[in-house]
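Subject: mismatched residue count in predicted assembly?

I count 1249 residues in my input, but I want to confirm that the predicted structure covers every chain. Input:
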Amino acid sequence: MSLLKTLGDKSWERKGIIGGLKPVGAFDTAPEKVALVFFLVVASVVFSLFTVSYFIRMELPDWTPLADPAKLWLNTGLLAISSVLFQWARNISSSTSTRNIKTAFIGGGVFAILFIAGQLSAWQDLNNAGHYIASNPANSFFYLFTAVHAVHLLGGLWVWSKSSIKLLSGSEPKEVRLSIQLCTLYWHFLLIVWLVLFAVLSNT
Amino acid sequence: MVLAVVIFLLVIGSIIFHFASPWWFTDIAADWGLIDLTITITFIVTGIVFVLINVFLAWCVYKYRQKPGHKAVYEPENHKLEVILSVVTSIGVIAMLAPGLFVWALFVNVPDNATEYEVMGQQWQWAFRYPGADGQLGTADTQLVTESNPFGVNPEDPNGQDDKIVLGPEMHLPIDKPVKANLRSNDVLHNYTVAQFRVKMDLVPGLISYLWFEPNKVGRYDILCEELCGIGHFVMRGAVVVDSQADYDVWLAQQPTFAETQAMVAADPASGQAQYAVCASCHGVQGEGNIALNAPKLAGQSAWYTERQLNYFKTGVRGGEGDTNGQMMAPMANMLADANAVRNMAAYIESLPDVPAAPTVTGDVENGASIYNRNCAACHLDNADGTWYTDAPKLSGMSDWYFLTQLQNFRTGIRGLHSNDYYGEQMVSMATAMSGIEEYEDVAAYINTLR
Amino acid sequence: MAYVPLADQEQELHHPHSWVTKYVWSQDHKVIAIQYAVTAIAVGVVALVLSLMMRMQLGFPETFNLIDPSEYYQAVTMHGMIMVVYLLTALFMGGFGNYLIPLMCGSRDMVFPFMNMLSYWVYLLSVLILMASFFVGEGPTGGGWTLYPPQTNLAGTPGHDSGIVLMLISLAVFIVAFTMGGLNYVVTTLQSRCRGLTMMRLPLSVWGIFVATCLALFAFPALLVAAIMMLFDTLLGTSFFMPAVIESGTPLDHNGGSPVLFQHLFWFFGHPEVYIVALPAFGLVSDVLSVHARKNIFGYRMMVWAIIAIGALSFIVWAHHMYVSGMHPYFGFFFATTTLIIAVPTALKVYNWVLTLYEGDIRLNAPMYFAIGFIFTFIHGGLTGLFLGNVIIDLPLSDTYFVVAHFHMVMGVSPVLVVFAAIYHWYPKITGRMFHEGMAKLHFWCTFLGTYAIYLPMHYLGFLGVPRRYYALGTTDFIPQSAQDLNTAITIAALFVGASQLLFFSNMLWSLRNGKKADPNPWGAASLEWQTAETPPIHGNWGAELPTVYRWAYDYSVPGAHKDFIPQNTPESIEPTMDEQHFDPDLDKSKADL
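Triage response: the counts match. Full output below for your records.
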């Protein structure tokens, strides 16, 4: 990408039509995807700042490391399966096997719901063990991270549910192909975010 | 056309205003002349730029305003000119930045021979701590703060035992000695500012920040809080007195050490009782007060407050000009021989049964509640019980008529403006923030509902 | 398969069927822009009234007693937050961004019209939540617009019960609204430009808003993160920012949190926020200056580079707001250096504005008055920034009225002058009517001279050491009575400026009905928004066919052209092309003189 060349353009010297119908410099993809990528960058900033805050807060004297529940490993597995299923749905989204697409796409979402349920139960376990949100800062961060991550996932599930209903009510796969692609990208992103957060929480 | 002239005149006017302005930096009283020099350099650089660009702007507007037969010149860019302007601007920036960073390095690195002292801020007052003979301040922690240990000095720390404790808002410093102020806060952010010293820094709860300077002029300077710290922000005042070394040593020797404040014998109410008979003639046997004699109810008032007021009457801080009733109180207070007698008396009065005084004031309770909750409760608490922490006395169940006369006294400056009345000026500000007697009555009526 | 440019795809424009769908649930970017602008200005008037109440207190203490200390701090807080976020950010992005981006890019609408509509309604919700805090509990928070903990959560601060919670929620909702709008502005600018419109042919307005939107998208998350963590501290008792503190004599359960961490997060948003407001203003004023000077903007490329450079640098200067915050003092070296570096691209922009006027053919009408007034106030505000950015000078001046005067000059008066310049400039296109020129000029004189009378002397109160955020000065040894007299004078000027804004509102309303019918392009401007067939433009903006762009947006006074401007969509066969190899301005000048 010749960003420098673009910015160095003496545009007053060149007259006439430049470029084809596609505006010069535009990304060669659906606008929804451009918007999603921008949003992912924004979300990354959110999660990075949370993580930075975590590390800064960790340096302060009252820090006690988190006893993270074993359930988180199981939950991580659920989210990974969810992501794999979405990838599968994406790979076959141009084919005509509606049944497989339905299975993969809807299955992916169901596993994501299971993941959220698993997170809730991890909360419950922590609470039962006396690790409340305000008990110590590591706990607070655990609840905060998982909550913010789950909210992002719920946002994805909202889009997923709309497309699922379309699929179930007999729409052609190509009508939801873009949606499947976007969901897959988003799910991979959230899986990576979760892996990073999980690594941060369990290694400090 | 007019615009060009106006811009030109604004430039001239700004310069005139600058040189004619009586509002300028206070006379510096610390060894930070380099800061003032940096400011002067910045003024010269920015001043030149201000005049040049704006005069050129005014000239362009005048010269190239639309006229018949006149046409703009087509010139997309002039790279050479832009490069020159960038370079010139960068030089100007460096001319300001370089001395700035040089002086900042001086500020960051505290000289080894600087003596330390501690500034503690809390809503809305200052207190100070000086190291004792060992030259070291003991450790302290907000979680150790109590009424008898308001600094939260760690009693286990041997370094802290000989620390000098200054609970009033006035501190002293010796002249021509570099000093480092360690800054701590018990609650919110505050900022330790003395305009004449030029430097300032926030007090942050949970950490110790610092600044240093070398006072070089004897005098008394205001300490202001310059970080918003709640509704009492604007009344959080103190003073620093720069003394000769000899005067400073005398003053410091008078201040109690931490160990002394902790070792103080508990007050003896019984011995206070013995002397109370004189008081009873006006304030009543049970300290219930007597409106006919202008004697307020005393029973139930916290000992620290009664003690302070008795001392004020003894030393003439209260009961001065215009305060006719206070003038009657002054000789009475003087009958208490010493500080211990005052403490014992205050302790006895606190132990008297607290029967709420009969209401004598009527007013709009709802309006009073609104005023009270917004502006008074922060110090006197929601239930008007008062607290030592904000130096706010109990109001609920006390004489409401006395409350009114005191607010009037604060408003008219009869009370609160004496330089040794540490927190009185806060009440002067709050009393004048209300519109007058009607609002006082409303508040009094509301406080009467809080018993 | 032939590529169909996004701008020309048969977008599902929701053509309105009734008054409600046309003006309320509208998906037309122009209607949404007006909704945004009207809401932002309305809430801005609330903030203006708050500031006048503060000025009454400062100018005439103990005389009117309009507000008590508690209300004063609430007014300080709400005035600041509303002006910065809910007025200026919303107006520049949601108002001007919405209106101008699709038109200047030659597209039919924003890329996601439904999301655009949603953005406005969520923004309105955030405003309503904020306003609700006036009526709940102890009223709005009085912690200062920076909302520093632990103060905002303690009993000594008004609104510590519900005010702060509503404020944080409102901010979070605002950020959601902004993100929806912001993605639209960015993607529309990138993907939906019409044929031939390269990035470097865009008017600077679009560049300013585009880069500012990117800044906002990456800066608001910091505020969101801070707001969420503070909500946890407030409502759930966590200790992210809350250290061990004593509230009115009672120790709280919090322990170990870092108030300075909040400040870092806040200013990591807060500093870019300055440029989120400034960059669109830079862009808009460049276009106004160029059109009315009948001259191309001088050094277009440098202007674009400067916008990008300022935007990028704005992320590494945040801690210059924290020189006296108790953070590690060594940060001071780094942040003072970056801060003063940012002065260079900013200064270049100023030079280029003035050089645009140089050898121009300046049409001195109301929009141009405001634009030139902006240059003056911005120079003033920018130069005082060099005092505060230089860490050692910040020590005496920080938290005094110098700071207040500086940021009102650079971020209050300057952008607002641009707002007025832009509103007057585009008013004919938006409404199809001309405004009343005389009234607009009178409005300019009152605003320009009045605000200078407010803020020039205010700097000198700061030199003296008068602290900001003081309900009353009380008695001090070093503040003379004359400072109080100056405060009174400032208040009178402020009341005058406040009242004179009625000229603006009456002009807007009066002209809507009685203004002269406007030509489609009354200023002879070259950029696309003036080339629409209808004025105001219809839903969908363009007729059957989208425009095609043949040149940059600043072909003014081109030697040899028929008129003194060439619209962007004029083919080069109709208007001559400059000889690109041997371009020599001096030579052309002599030709023009012949």
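Chain A touches chain B through four residues (CB under 8 Å). Marking this ticket as 'not a bug'.
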